[in-house]
Specification:
It is built from 7 helices and 17 strands. By secondary structure, the chain is α+β, with helices and mostly antiparallel strands. It folds into 3 domains: about 120 residues, Rossmann fold (3-Layer(aba) Sandwich), CATH 3.40.50; about 90 residues, predicted glycosyltransferase like domains (Thrombin, subunit H), CATH 2.40.10.220; about 120 residues, Thrombin, subunit H. A hairpin with a 2-residue loop joins strand 13 and strand 14. It starts with a strand and ends in a 6-residue tail after the last helix.
């Protein structure tokens, strides 16, 4: 399984429900009921997502904040399991990406996990890679000392060229030295993609602490720049996801370059909404899960093609907000990224009010 989630929760029933949902999506789960043990795992390896029960809110918030300060998990998708007693806005402020309300509903959790999976893949694609030229040898599937040439390197993965074709998703073992550093790095990883030119992308699976220190020190001493981007930053997809997700995986990351995505003022939320196609009067009920001044991501089983004009309606106790936009990306059966059409002062006002709702009200009814 390519994606890995650390589930920190003392509730056995919640662990069972969430583990089944994640595994059905092809996401591996490591469950841990102790916050101290979870901290040690976060320090030791990378996770694509962290699901943290906020029953003990101060300790849970501290764990999320700690993950944000580690090199290996600073961009992991953090999902807080919360109840009505939790201060959700403070949890978001400390680094949570989503809030999932307890008791855990299988249907609602499945929707949230699908959106989170899109963001996990997006975060993986935007991590900077640094070009590196070095010869090495790799071992995999019963073969040893297979020659390879390193192409680029990041905190969580490496690309190389080799004349040998690797089996899909196999484990690969490396031993190499980086330019200007005599210390050997030993690690293992999983094949994530290959192309016809012999290039392959590897996601690190296990990096011993000594090798991790050498790797991180070298990356800090050789920072990336915009000109360092290489084709391996956009791995070849082996999934059935819509190709538009390579540009925008939803969750508010709309029509922007990878370098700018983290600078958007994004707000995670859970707003009930109705979506209307401009040529239809029948609404599609959905959930708005992330919003920024430029757009939003909505979870819905009924998706529309990219470029479809839409009107999104959100009702609160004292107002009815309407924003216009068009589908920017579509994840069939899961949801859509929508880019707002802001042409008038009234359009801008509606978007501002909708963002205010997302910030102030974790849950709104329709």
């Amino acid at each position: 399984m390519a994606l890995v989630t650390l589930l920190v929760c003392p509730d056995a029933q919640a662990i069972q429900v969430l583990s089944r949902i994640l595994e059905d999506m092809g996401i591996a789960v490591e469950a841990c009921g102790d916050l101290g043990m979870a901290r040690a795992r976060i320090d030791d390896r990378h996770f694509d997502a962290l699901l943290v029960d906020c029953q003990d809110e101060p300790a849970a918030v501290e764990l999320i904040a700690h993950a944000r300060n580690t090199a290996s998990n600073k961009v992991a998708v953090a999902i807080a399991l919360v109840s009505a007693q939790n201060d959700v806005r403070d949890i978001f402020a400390k680094g949570a990406s989503f809030a999932l309300y307890k008791p855990i509903s299988r249907e609602r959790a499945a929707h949230s996990m699908r959106a989170a999976r899109s963001l996990m893949r997006s975060e993986r694609r935007i991590r900077p890679r640094i070009p590196v030229q070095a010869n090495t040898s790799i071992a995999y599937a019963g073969k040893e000392d297979v020659p390879a040439a390193l192409v680029d390197l990041s905190e969580q993965g490496i690309a190389f060229r080799s004349d040998s074709k690797l089996p899909p998703y196999c484990k690969v073992y490396f031993q190499f030295a980086l330019p200007g550093n005599a210390a050997l790095i030993r690690l293992s990883g999983e094949v994530m993609w290959q192309d016809s030119s012999g290039r392959a992308g590897i996601r690190f699976a296990h990096v011993p602490q000594t090798s991790r220190r050498v790797l991180n020190d070298w990356l800090k001493a050789n920072p990336s720049s915009p000109s360092d981007a290489t084709p391996s930053d956009l791995p070849v997809s082996t999934s059935d996801d819509d190709p538009g997700l390579q540009l925008s995986a939803g969750l508010g990351l709309l029509s922007v370059s990878a370098a700018d995505r983290r600078n958007l003022s994004r707000h995670s939320c859970c707003l009930g909404a109705e979506v209307y196609r401009v040529d239809r009067s029948v609404p599609t009920r959905c959930t708005l899960v992330d919003i920024s001044p430029g757009g939003c991501y909505i979870e819905t089983a009924e998706t529309f093609p990219s470029g479809t004009p839409l009107e999104i309606v959100v009702r609160t106790e004292n107002r009815r907000l309407r924003v216009h936009g068009k589908v920017q990306s579509m994840n069939r059966g899961f949801g859509m990224g929508v880019e707002f059409s802001v042409r008038t002062d009234e359009h801008r006002k509606q978007v501002r009010q909708l963002i205010a709702c997302a910030q102030s009200e974790p849950k709104l009814s329709t």
